Amino acid sequence: MPPWVVVGPGDDAAVIEPERGALEVLTTDTLVEGIHFDRRFVPPDAIGHRALAVNLSDLAAMGARPRAALLSLVLPGTLELSALDGILDGLLALAGSHRVTLVGGNITRSPGPLVIDVTATGSVSRRRVLRRSSARPGDLVYVTGHVGDAAAGLRQLQAGDAPEAVLAERYLRPQPRVRAGLVLAGNRVASSCIDLSDGLADGLRQIARASNVGIKVDSSALPISGACRDWHHRSGGDLLETVFGGGDDYELLFTVKSAYRKRLRAVTRQLGDLPITPIGVVTKERDLVVSGANGMRALPTGFEHFR
Amino acid sequence: MPPWVVVGPGDDAAVIEPERGALEVLTTDTLVEGIHFDRRFVPPDAIGHRALAVNLSDLAAMGARPRAALLSLVLPGTLELSALDGILDGLLALAGSHRVTLVGGNITRSPGPLVIDVTATGSVSRRRVLRRSSARPGDLVYVTGHVGDAAAGLRQLQAGDAPEAVLAERYLRPQPRVRAGLVLAGNRVASSCIDLSDGLADGLRQIARASNVGIKVDSSALPISGACRDWHHRSGGDLLETVFGGGDDYELLFTVKSAYRKRLRAVTRQLGDLPITPIGVVTKERDLVVSGANGMRALPTGFEHFR
Asked: What residues contact B188, with CB distance under 8 A and at least 6 apart?
């Protein structure tokens, strides 16, 4: 990689330095109908929203301020014009709320499934870039918001149940934690960070692998919403499987040096209503362990294949 | 558009100014199997090459120096691993020859056709940006290289004829005119510029529309290769239809103030073997006219739908 590549492939987004001191963060993600969403229960505006959200979440996980986006749409010939309008409406509404400008793109017709690819760019200063690879033993592990809601919402939608609005909404129109990423980066409080679009188990694994460390998670500390708990209680589903294995929670998972706990309180105050919950600790032994009421066990590998 | 958007949607690429004086050029393009290429006669490496080439050609048409690319691949479940390797090889070979670094991307499996989406970024200084919208009456119209070769090559490949290597190669592995774009921008000699990925007729129309001018093209001046002429002679095809309507020639179409003809000679010298051919003149009357042995006629609208 040339010297102006600050962060190359393998992180949430790439970081380049076109001019000295001016870092540009680039990320691209593709949603494919039938793989990443089902048009039977995901309305067009939610498709557009989610396609941008997954990219903004990647920028948030780098500590970047999003700026511009490019959109590539591959549309099945059968798609109605109103659906196209809905996709654009959903994308532009989320873009507007984060002051992101759509600067270009293209639309292609295809015989295949709907494909929506978004590239987003943003900026971050060099000292503030949040990476996956810099967690150190002894750091505390935190997560923003709640985990498991989006996966529970998806399961309800898939089952054709009348979904609970709060859970379905968390799946359909997730809020990328752009502000949390900016505040964490601005306070230089996080030693590593990743977004949870691929699930909590995957996020823990990625940070541990990239940082050459292990993580011990206290399952009793996980921030699980009442709605998510209730639904699992009623439906008899495996709550921890949803929470660890379910994706689509666009929350941030990050680590903080234990000496920075005070500094983190300033972050928590700045973020107001968004919960910031300690869920574990980084260990020197390179194992991923979950502790709970029944003792300790390894983080099951199956969790990352739930999706 | 916010003030840092120097060129928004509607040009070959977007130009943003993240920091004062440092312009970033962004472009994204999608190739869809069955729409933009046919895997029966386009080998994997050519698919990868063309997916990057179409984006580098957009950057060239802005006068930008390419720097980084992102790749999104949507692969049919049936695609062999060797084909994926071939696509990456073709893309990386072209990237290497233009010092472009692949900084990120993602791969998705899908039940649909192969979709390859590339985003490319580059840089240009503000005074050097080549736009479509600044051609003025009296400017001379030029084109790089030869026009029609790629379309002739595609027709041969489609017909299952043993294709002539030079024509087929121009379709399969077109060379984006990155250096020509840089030299034109560096000498500040072009008043407008566009790439010919969508064909000569489309390029003329786009410049005329964006600049509020007309263009008169001298069809006897068009740089048509001997191989292209020979094949049309033998096959009885309509040469001008191929030349005006055929796409996939990654050449640059640009306009030059007539007072800058001397300055253009310096550009021509710098570009060595690449022909730079005057093919017409920009007019105040907003018509697109082709003059030839049989007099003048309007540029047929059908040409832009050839593809």
From this structure: B127, B128
